[in-house]
Each structure stands twice: as C-alpha cells, then as structure tokens.
C-alpha cells in the first residue's frame, strides 16, 4: 500500500479527482485541513485570541505544521498542487520539505507557473497539469499499466 499526501491549493476539488482516479488501487491518502477558515483560525480558536495578525497566523501555522510534518514524513509520495488563483507559499514549503526528506514528489500546475516553479519542478520526479495524470502515474507505479493497457 502506498501512502500519498495531497498538498496545495484548497479552492478546487482536485483531491477528489485524484482519489476517484485511484479508487481501485492500493493507496491511502492524507491531506491538510482543507476548510480554509478552520486552517487559518485553529491557533486562536484553541490557544486564545491574538490582536496582532502575525501571531494569529503563527499560532495557526504551527498547529497545522503538526499535521503536515507527520503526513509528509509518513508519505511514500507527496503530490503538491499549485493553483491559478493564489500564491501558495505553503505548498512550495511542503514541496521543499518533501524533497529534503527524499520523498517521491509529484508537482501539479499549469504552464503559466512553469518559470516561477522551475526549482520546485527540478526536485520533482514528475510534473503534471491534471489530476488524471497523477492517477495514471499511480496506476503505473503500482501495476505497471499504461493508459493504453486499460
């Protein structure tokens, strides 16, 4: 069984598309908290309010890091998606952390991010544009099957 961590943008359903494409494979998935407000406000909700936005964000980032570090450490493969709408600095950090740990890294983004993410892409074992490509990679890695074989 492969453990796959799905990191990156939280504004689209790309994770569901990958899971659906891998439903018959021996794969388990983990992911960050994708409810944006919960992720942003967990620190102050649990540890107490902050007047300064920096400390508000720092508390949340540290609590989220507990989950993220464990999931990336336990993963066999880390998939990091960079979306079109926002700059996902946290996704770049996750990609770097996964690379530093020697994890198999798959990076997903559109062609418009190619130049900005060239260093991240260079650390990846695959760079894709769609969730379907991630599912096809998983199928190949687990079963040696190409899309034409199916």
Please specify the SSE layout and strand pairing.
Layout: E1 2-8, H1 14-21, E2 27-30, H2 36-47, H3 53-74, E3 77-81, H4 89-100, E4 104-108, H5 118-123, E5 126-128, H6 131-143
Parallel strand pairs: 1-2, 1-3, 3-4, 4-5
Helix count from the secondary structure assignment? 6
What is the makeup of the main sheet?
5 strands, parallel
Strand order of the largest sheet: 2-1-3-4-5
CATH topology: Rossmann fold
Q: Under the CATH scheme, which class?
A: Alpha Beta
Let me know the average pLDDT: 95
Order of helices and strands: EHEHHEHEHEH
Number of beta strands: 5
Q: Return the domain count.
A: 1
- Helix percent reads 40-55%
* Computed structural class: alpha/beta
Name the beta content range. 15-25%
At the fourth level of CATH, the homologous superfamily is Response regulator
CATH architecture descriptor: 3-Layer(aba) Sandwich
Radius of gyration (Å): 16 Å
Alpha-carbon distance between the two ends: 21 Å
